[in-house]
Amino acid sequence: MSKLPLMTRELDDVIAWRAGRTVTAAEFIFQARWLADRLRREDQVINLCQDRHTFSLAFAAAILAQTTTLLPANRLPDTVDALVNRYPGCLILSDQAIDGLHHPMLDPGMALDQSGRAEQVPEPDESLLAAVVFTSGSTGPSSAVEKPWRTLHDSSLINAAEYGPQERAHVLATVPPQHMWGLETSVLLPWFGPAIIASAQPFFAADIIALLDQLPRPRALVSTPIHLRNLAESGFDIPTIDRIYSATAPLGAKLAGELERQTSARVTEVYGCSEAGCLAHRRAARDEPWQLFKAFSLLEDHGQFRVHAEHLPEDVTLLDHLDVLDDGRFRLAGRHGDLVNIAGKRASLAELTQRLLDISGVTDGVIFQPPENDEGRVTRLAALVVAPQLSERQIRQALSRRIDPAFMPRPLRRVPALPRAESGKLPHQSLVHFYQQVCEPAR
Amino acid sequence: MSAEQTPSERKLAELIVESLNLEDIEPEEIEPEKPLFGDEYGLDSIDALELALAISKTYGVQLRADDEKNRHVFANLRSLNAHIESLSG
Fold it and tell me: Which residue range forms the structural domain that includes residue B12?
């Protein structure tokens, strides 16, 4: 069986920055090995750690123990419960107690107290199923993306070459390590490129700025359009940043340009999906078309695009329509109908609507995406509901127990009936028109 | 009575409803000690970011989430208002 190294960093390289001190590759591997000895009997672990460094350590330890790490789309008790039901006996790794979660947990933070240094970089089997990434709150088979070690190893080398820092840089990330974008950049990139990752996960603009101030230059920020818009509009003085990376939603040339002006950073926007990982990049401030990474090729089949790459277990169908230019670069031209992406989380509108219809007292209803609003702001879903016996508040409360908060429709309006055609279908145009009549006057 | 909004809480409630486009909720409906995030009003972390931005523009104060105490600030309208008042003090 072929082996591929856990990392390509030198043992003395600094790879992380936690609680004001640096961590070398040798120290990291030593602690990961120590933790791996405690995970060997597990088939799967669910890694819910919030501290990025603890997450990385637990992720590395699981790989060394030949254990599969499950990465849920969120930490909601229902989501984790569903995962535990699907993988009976799997162990939860978490550095904090989680409200409403009653499964036994192991805190991988105990490995941080172990001091010592590894003498060599371990080489896991390339065929090890290192991770299963869940792309939505529901844990149906369609949302489970399998990541063999070979895929993660190769895509990390590709990312490091295509867009990662080429020289030693301190990296701060606002994205959770459990999400594919966060996993690739804030966990794996420092194993394969000259990045030193900060363990923090700042949230508000003031938090991001305070942490950037502490990091030596050159420094990079890995984030999303939501956090970046918040940062740009905060009115605070932002320290100089050398590189900014954004993914999960369209960034927009205006916001990217504003960020470049305020921070002096070069802003790189990255395109990808959980199934394929990162696969294209562009300079958003110049509104450049997307440049596909060299390791990927694009295949078109009746207007649907797939990507192929040697390191992927199979070809991946993209959720976006693409306009491919003569030089091979492309522009994004809208999403396929049923799937929505809000703040990097994915869901099927049909599935969300089904959850709404499951509520007792709801006789008809639909959850859909209203026309987009201004740049950088999250467009929420909307719901129209027929439920003569329920109040809007009752419907909202019932729904909030069933779906991820990011997909909670806003507005949610009770209506006497939906504008269904005689066939019973709900044409998108009539829906949008009807919605504007019902909801626009309130704005 | 604790369930009633003070004038400054009302002002903050209006900012919340306006900045987050909460079309289904009237400012006076936000109960000062009910959790802002979660089931009742349906707010999530994206809203927290939007709200922090609106608060910094309106009150000129910076919200942080870097320790346990600061995270509790967002618990409800009352705690958030008290925190803003302490920062603008």
Answer: 7-88
* Any A CB within 8 A of B21 CB: yes
Q: The pTM is what?
A: 0.87
Q: How many CB pairs under 8 A join A and B?
A: 77
CB contact under 8 A, A405 and B52: no
- CB contact A373 to B (< 8 Å): no
The CA R_g of chain B, rounded to the nearest whole Å, is: 12
Q: Based on the domain organization, do A79 and A148 belong to the same domain?
A: yes
Give the Cβ contact number of residue B58 at 10 Å.
Answer: 14
Partner-chain contact B23 A204, CB within 8 Å = no
Q: What is the pLDDT of residues A272-305, one digit of tens each?
A: 999 999 999 999 999 999 999 999 999 998 888 9
Q: Is A97 a domain residue?
A: yes
Whether the Cβ atoms of residue B53 and residue A230 lie closer than 8 Å to each other: yes
Q: Which residue matches tokens 């590709």? A: A158
Contacts of A300 (CB under 8 A, 6+ apart): A306, A324
Predicted local distance difference test score (pLDDT) of residue A421: 81
How many beta carbons lie within 10 A of that of residue A235, not counting itself?
12
